[in-house]
């Protein structure tokens, strides 16, 4: 009886681990496939390169759904709640939602990056820098004739 119970518990634990995150919030293999499907769909919608976005998520959060930066950026795409509220036109978006709703987080991040790419005349490097540093900072540095690069865009574009 005890052996059967142990086997059932192990089976349940193994199944649960393939459908979500560990207690540390790291995306498991089965969940990553689902997230990649979300990324693929939304990249097609926003005309963004899937490889770049997957790499961006790796750089931003190492695929940690519950990632939270010292600046207050949240989730996989490390987007600020205020930015997500603005870009999604939804004042109810909170840091908690951004750290638990992968679809919302990815949608907000990709919509914001697509907006930044348009803002910077299609220049992906500048859009990535604006995503990381803020568009006002990038525009200010460019206006002063200063290269806004801080290495972020190189990390994202490395080996692509």
Largest sheet: none
Task: Report the principal-axis shape.
Answer: globular
Return the average pLDDT rounded to an integer: 86
Structural class: mainly alpha
Number of domains: 1
> If you compute it from the alpha carbons, what radius of gyration comes out, rounded to the nearest whole angstrom?
18 Å
In the predicted model, the low-confidence regions spanning at least 5 consecutive residues are: 1-24
N-end to C-end Cα span: 54 Å
What is the second-level CATH architecture?
Answer: Orthogonal Bundle
Query: N-to-C SSE series?
Result: HHHHHHHHH
Proportion of strand residues: under 5%
The CATH topology: Lysozyme
* Count of DSSP-assigned helices: 9
Amount of helix: 55-70%
**What's the level 1 CATH class?**
Mainly Alpha
Number of strands: 0
């Amino acid at each position: 009886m005890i052996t059967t119970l142990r086997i059932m518990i192990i089976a349940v634990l193994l199944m649960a681990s393939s459908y979500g995150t560990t207690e540390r919030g790291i995306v498991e293999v089965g969940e990553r496939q689902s997230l990649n499907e979300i990324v693929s769909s939304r990249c097609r919608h926003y005309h963004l390169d899937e490889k770049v976005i997957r790499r961006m998520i790796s750089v931003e959060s190492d695929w940690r759904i519950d990632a939270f930066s010292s600046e207050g950026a949240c989730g996989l795409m490390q987007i600020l709640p205020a930015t997500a509220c603005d870009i999604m036109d939804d004042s109810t978006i909170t840091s908690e939602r951004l750290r638990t709703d992968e679809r919302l987080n990815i949608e907000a991040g990709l919509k914001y990056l697509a907006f930044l790419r348009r803002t910077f005349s299609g220049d992906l490097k500048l859009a990535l820098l604006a995503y990381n540093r803020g568009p006002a900072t990038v525009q200010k540095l460019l206006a002063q004739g200063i290269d806004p690069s801080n290495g972020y865009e190189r990390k994202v574009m490395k080996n692509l």
